[in-house]
Design brief:
Layout: H1 11-21, E1 25-27, E2 34-36, H2 38-57, E3 61-62, E4 68-70, H3 71-74, H4 78-84, E5 90-93, E6 96-99, E7 102-105, E8 110-117, H5 122-132, E9 141-150, E10 164-174, H6 177-199, E11 204-207, E12 219-226, E13 232-242, H7 244-248, E14 252-254, E15 260-262, E16 264-271, H8 273-282, E17 299-303, H9 308-323, E18 328-330, H10 338-347, E19 352-356, H11 358-363, E20 365-370, E21 375-380, H12 384-409, E22 411-413, H13 417-425, E23 430-435, H14 439-449, E24 452-457, E25 482-487
Parallel strand pairs: 3-9, 17-18, 17-19, 22-23
Antiparallel strand pairs: 1-2, 4-8, 5-8, 6-7, 9-10, 10-16, 11-12, 11-24, 12-13, 13-16, 14-15, 19-20, 20-21, 23-25, 24-25
């Protein structure tokens, strides 16, 4: 088995090595695309199950829309097409032909209305909403789809930026702006709490600047996380679309006063990027560290010998854990050395590893290894189920606390531009600094230092950021409009 480089030595190489050696995914022969392997896809399935349940409990229903979107739809919302134009894959022909033993495009099979391969679904959904919505009685509409999308990224990295990726995208329609904004913020809170309670990642909630907002939205809200290399990762967004898409697609409803009004919309989504966030938030030089609540295998049991006594203990323990909804793997591959198995499950980030040998049976104990602390200790076989369940809860809480502490230690309030430049350039983490509120200043900092405004944070975060009346912008020295979070980002 190949060895990982350390995070300190080369974080990017470490990240790619974790994905490969822990069997999450591999590169496809299609440029910028990846093959999600069973272990990686099972993490996504767990994320999907949990979020899908939360969406349904808040009144959303699942749908599916076509992968191909007529280009004529896509061009109706001006800022939307401008925002996505450079990332679009376009289908221009529907047939190939054999010519001189080579396959070429059949020029007689050109599409009259070319198709965009779905980068996001607002346009095709709002074209459909026009058919679905006639009266206030048809509102609200609250739908979600689990799908794949295509964005032709120039620089790709598994899970973080790929030409094709998996995600969910929610789309809703309302009869007033207040209800639409409430929906937008509700979904942001679902993402925020999901990060804390399941992924063990402390997100920051905030609103994007005008320059960074979603193409076609009035407001974009975000959850941002800090990775172990000091760079930020946008982990989910929720958009208040206002009436922009309703006007572009002429989606009106008859209100209670028998007057026609434009509908108000929202959209929101997270993607397989969350798996990248898990890797870079929790992983160490030995590989993955998975939060127990989304780990495909929560406990792996490794019997050191194949005998009746050990097998009986393993079978009973396995049954009890399964009865308590714990996912268990028994690694009884007798053709592999124990050391190889230990390294493999360590790489895969399984929260708890149990080793059972003859001496353990004699002592009526189990050897337990916690992945989050790389600690080893013995517990009694008699009450092992209860202990192991509690340990999984402890691990979930512990890795969240570690991530929160890391973010705290790598968050800096800076009002001196030389210090600001140093910290941004060295990817020190989140930098909280005053900003004059202008796009011009934002773009100049981005051009000079590759630092972007991740968000204007809410005051109800666990990270309190307040703008003072005498604050001056870190760059222009004009009066500050907001204190914002800067960072280099993925």
């Amino acid at each position: 088995m190949s060895k990982l480089v350390s995070q300190e030595e080369n974080f990017s190489e470490w990240y790619n090595g974790v994905i490969q050696l822990s069997d999450l995914a591999e590169n496809s022969d299609v440029r910028g695309c990846m093959i999600l392997k069973p272990y990686g896809y099972s993490i996504w399935e767990n994320i999907q199950k949990i979020l899908d349940d939360k969406f349904k409990k808040t009144g959303h229903s699942n749908v599916y829309f076509p992968l191909f979107i007529p280009k004529s739809y896509f061009c109706k919302e001006a800022s939307h097409v401008e925002g996505f134009a450079k990332e679009c894959a376009v289908i221009t022909h529907y047939r190939l032909k054999n010519k001189d033993n080579s396959i070429v495009v059949d020029e007689n099979a050109k599409l009259e209305d070319e198709y965009i391969v779905r980068p996001t679904s607002e346009t095709i959904i709002w074209n459909t909403f026009k058919k679905w919505i006639k009266s206030y009685r048809d509102l609200p509409i609250k739908i979600n789809q689990w799908a794949n999308v295509c964005r032709w990224e120039m620089r790709t990295r598994p899970f973080l930026r790929t030409s094709e990726f998996l995600w969910q995208e929610g789309h809703t329609a309302h009869n007033n702006i207040e209800e639409a904004r409430k929906e937008t913020l509700q979904m942001l809170d679902i993402y925020y709490n999901f990060g804390k309670d399941y992924l063990a990642i402390p997100f920051i909630k905030g609103i994007k600047t005008e320059n960074e907002k979603f193409a076609g939205a009035e407001e974009t809200y975000t959850v941002e996380a800090l990775m172990k290399d000091g760079k930020a990762l946008q982990c989910g967004t929720s958009h208040l679309l206002g009436q922009n898409f309703a006007k572009a697609f002429d989606v009106k409803y008859l209100n209670k006063d028998n007057k026609l009004e434009y509908v108000y919309g929202t959209s929101w989504g997270v993607s397989t990027r969350l798996i990248g966030a898990i890797i870079m938030t929790h992983g160490d030089d030995k590989g993955l560290i998975l939060p127990p609540k989304i780990a495909p295998i929560q406990i792996v049991i490794i019997p050191l010998d194949n005998n009746e006594q050990i097998n009986n203990v393993v079978d009973k323990l396995n049954s009890k854990l399964i009865d308590n909804n714990i996912s268990v793997k028994i690694d009884d591959r007798d053709y592999l050395r124990p050391g190889f198995k230990f390294t493999e499950w360590e790489l895969k980030g399984v929260p708890l590893r149990i080793v059972i040998g003859k001496k353990d049976i004699e002592n009526n104990t189990l050897e337990v290894i916690r992945r989050d602390e790389n600690s080893k200790f013995s517990i009694s076989i008699d009450n092992s189920t209860e202990i192991l369940i509690k340990l999984l809860t402890d691990i979930q809480d512990n890795i969240y606390k570690k991530a929160l502490e890391f973010r705290h230690n790598h968050t800096f309030e800076v009002d001196n531009y030389n210090e600001f430049k140093d910290k941004i350039s060295n990817k020190s983490g989140f930098i909280i600094s005053p900003w004059d509120g202008t796009t011009d200043t934002e773009l100049k900092i981005k051009e000079e230092l590759q630092g972007t405004i991740r968000c204007i944070p809410f005051e109800n975060n666990d990270l309190i950021v307040k703008n003072n009346s005498n604050d001056k912008c870190i760059y222009s020295q004009k009066k500050s409009k907001n204190k914002v979070i800067f960072a280099q980002n993925y």
